[in-house]
Amino acid sequence: MCDDPLLPEPVARAVAEYRDLRDRHGPTWGEAPLSYVVQARGTVFLDRRYDYWNTGLRQLAERHPGASPAELDDRMGEVDVDRLIRDGLGGDVLDHLPALRLTPEGVTLEARTQVVLGDAPFRTALLLDSSRAGPVTVVVDGTPHEVEPRGAKVVEVAREVLVGGRPVDLTPLARRAPAAALRLRAGFPCRWSVTGADGQSWYPQGAPHKVDGHLRPYFHGDDVVVEVPAEPLTVTVARGMEYTESDLALTPVAGEERLVELTPERLYDAAAHGWYGGDLHVHLNWMGEEPAAPPLAAAAQHGEDLHVLGLVAGNVATERVYDLEALAHWVGRDLPWSDSEHVARIGVEYRNDLVGHVSAFGLRGLPQRYHSGFAGDADWPPNAAALEELRALGAMTGYGHPFHRPIADDDPPEAVLSRGRNCSAREIVADAALGLIDTLDVLNHSSILGTAAVYRHLIGAGNRLAVTAGTDAVLSFCRRGTASGPPGWARVYAHVGGPLTAESYMEAVLLGRTFATTGPWLQLTVNGHEPGDTLDLAPGDRVEVEVRSVGPEVERLEIRTADGVLAEGPRGRLTATLAAGEPTYVVAVAAGGAHPRSQHRGGAYAHTSPVFLDVAGEHVAREADVRWCLGWLDRLEELVGEFGRFDGKEQHADHLALYERARQVYRSRLPVPD
């Protein structure tokens, strides 16, 4: 029997194994580099403020003149990551990564001095940055490290650094300060930040040192004690997107514990109206600085007041599927910290980097396959086979982080479908036509606007897909932008109506009673009907459309149909009248610029699922959207032929047969020639 329901023995063993991998290999855990993930091999994971990706591409372009962008993407594994960090920083110094500049003129240490409490030990990562024409040896805590000419290396240092036998003055790295303590209390679990005047952050003992997409430090809990310096500090409390932030400036007294009672204010209460918000794509472990155990997920879900948490087990680049042990232990059951307003389940991210990644929520059993196309394996079977298996096991399926580049509504498929292997949701157009996919994470960490454009083509072509959200937050990450941010920074709200369960939430999502958001509340009604409903109209019937928003980050509202923007206006309320002509749909969009409540680099955004307007019994199948999907399948066939890996022609033929079945569906939706 397991003594701790949140950490049963097989899960505890897996977390211990991940910690051993981290200790031996650093934050990549020994995983092979992926073309779309810039991975640090040293002691510091990459800070997403800096454009390491394009820096690496520039280095590769110099080495491989004439190579195409797709070929450069595929060569990212060749990049010297420590040098990539140095070049990406462009001379900046991170708080957790001081730099030792090795120039022809001498040695200079650049650092943002860290406060150390009392006699506590101090250790930090250190960037060795050489502009010398020859190699140089740097001895760090007794271990020699050779830095290549004009090269870079990330190391750890605690006591001593020698260059040319001479010690480097390390006093700029840290200063000592007397210790005090804060007891933080809100009356319910929250997200907290404690920062000093110099920006240094403070955490409870044992808490991972995480930062969000704005580089703000955070941890979760209530009635927690944090050891801090007896210096000016700011305490900030927040709790997910339904609340605002509150903060307090104070100076604690050395040797004393001060009680801080602080609560965030609520902006809206979705559950009071039967709406529950979920994040359907969150990893416990997927490489990272601090392997994550289930109690960290429990603290995050309750601290963010995230109603539904969809954890997913998935591989990185090899056969290993992280959190498979947790999946095997809890499959088909609520995770132990679930309650009447918070439900957590663990499912799967099925991954193929050529045709897309699929998440599954609500699994009742273990699937037979978890990925294809990795470590030289064939890109077979098509994703449709995995979707059929996941559906048979009771899961709701959806494509995650679908598209990574800006996509305009009028871009042709060939402009959208880039070459190479980059985990874009390329097979969704086929799977949607064949009824094998339920949702699309329009709200995601990559291109929200691009995904929204594709989504509207899909529903305009007659497919029924619900808008959802999956942040791809990774609880084992500490410093990777939105990936290390709190789960639920984007959410899909579903109108459940009755009590919240995994099953009632899935039912509401599958019916399309959803909107997805980075923060704003967004409400759409058409003649009083909400998303997921279908109105059967006669030609000429008129409908009244109303959109309402809540949230300071909203700057504009849109009402859109299959033909484009019907109406737009400022936040708050927007109305329009529509006369029924061709069958169509109605969706609402809220948008705004950068805002502290929105983690996404593209700013604030929300998008509803559609209200469908059938006319004379006919469902929307806009000819332009249908032909767009047919063009997509043609382009997809070319890409799979060029970049796919198959063990024989039969495997390739399975993909082509799938696309032809989808073409037949779309062709059947085209108008019959007179």
CATH superfamily of the largest domain: Metal-dependent hydrolases
**Poorly predicted runs:** none
Mean pLDDT: 94
What characteristic shape results from the CA principal axes? globular
**Distance, first to last CA:** 72 Å
Number of domains: 3
Number of strands: 38
Describe the sheet with the most strands.
17 strands, mixed
Roughly what percent helix?
Answer: 10-25%
Q: Which topology of the largest domain does CATH recognise?
A: TIM Barrel
Name of the top-level CATH class of the largest domain: Alpha Beta
Output the radius of gyration. 26 Å
Structural class category: alpha+beta
Describe this protein's structure.
Helix 2 crosses helix 4 (81-89). The protein is built from 13 helices and 38 strands. It is α+β, with helices and mostly antiparallel strands and 674 residues long. The mean pLDDT is 94. The protein has a 17-stranded mixed sheet that branches. A five-stranded antiparallel sheet has the order 13-14-12-16-17. The chain has a four-stranded mixed sheet with strand order 2-1-4-7, with helices on one face. The protein folds into three domains: 31-113 and 123-147, no CATH class; 178-261, Immunoglobulins (Immunoglobulin-like); 271-623, Metal-dependent hydrolases (TIM Barrel, Alpha-Beta Barrel). The longest helix is centred in the last third of the chain and has 21 residues, at 623-643. The N and C termini lie far apart (72 Å). It is globular, with a radius of gyration of 26 Å. Helix content is 21%, strand content 30%.
